[in-house]
Zinc-ribbon domain-containing protein (Ruthenibacterium lactatiformans), 150 residues
Amino acid sequence: MHCKARGFILYYNQSSSKTGKIREVLEMTTFDKLKGAAATLADAAVKTTGDLAQKGKKQMDLLALENKLSRAQRQLGALVYALHKNGEENTALVERYIETIAAVEKDIAALEPAPAAAMADDAQTAVYCPQCGAEVDPHAIFCPGCGGKL
């Protein structure tokens, strides 16, 4: 005799229904533990993926702003050169370019991590060799300086 419960087929020994019940309870407990572990793993994967996506988006935004800044600076330089070459002066237009550049620099500063935060991240990820004290890659197995096992 067998019955289906939660996707598992539980087989009962016809001579001992107690053994069958114990087996059913054990399999359900194992299934619940497995289900809980899978849910925890899935939640961690979703969180990590979200964090990576957000970091990637931030980097893309930062690169776009840096490109915009570079373009505005080149345009300002070309404008000042053309004005000087022709002996003209257009302070209002130059000021407008300078304001645009300042606004883009402000946006870049808002996206970039603070130097203290960047150094704190580096300090957390820095790994040092116990034999020679050299900084090594966190995933290294051996020290590139002395060859000692990490």
